[in-house]
Amino acid sequence: DARLSDIVGSIRENALLDLALKDAAVLKKPVGDVLQEPLPVVSANDPLGDASRLLAAGSNAVVVVDDDKPVGVLSGADLLAFLAEKDQS
């Protein structure tokens, strides 16, 4: 089973696009060569507002953990979809 300490980095779409536009050969590099810092982490028990603040601060997504085990990734798009659905119900 994966543990939070097993997450060594992330690749953000906008950063990868920037790299690819500068040098298309980056797409042939190993994933480990283009990793950025890991995503911020929230507990599955944290209020949704905590994740929202991290997303508003510029992170594209957050890792959701339960008892030090990653159980999901919440993106800004996921949060917007949830809020839009909630608003319509």
Protein described:
By secondary structure, the chain is of the alpha+beta class. It is 40% helix and 18% strand. It is built from 4 helices and 3 strands; from the N terminus they run H-H-E-H-E-E-H. The chain has a 3-stranded mixed β-sheet with strand order 1-2-3. Strand 2 and strand 3 form a beta hairpin. The longest helix is centred in the last third of the chain and has 13 residues. The model has no long low-confidence stretch (mean pLDDT 93).
Ordered list of secondary-structure elements with their pairings:
Blueprint: H1 13-22, H2 31-34, E1 41-43, H3 48-56, E2 61-66, E3 69-75, H4 76-88
Parallel strand pairs: 1-2
Antiparallel strand pairs: 2-3
Core attributes:
3-stranded mixed beta sheet; alpha+beta; 3 strands; 89 residues; flat; 40% helix
Oligomer: single chain
Name the helicity range: 40-55%
Q: Report the sheet with the most strands, covering strand number, pairing sense and barrel closure.
A: 3 strands, mixed
- Which stretches of 5+ consecutive residues score pLDDT under 50? none
Distance between the termini: 37 Å
Quickly give the structural class. Answer: alpha+beta
What is the beta-strand fraction?
15-25%
How are strands sequenced across the largest beta sheet?
1-2-3
Give the H and E element order. HHEHEEH
Describe the global form: flat
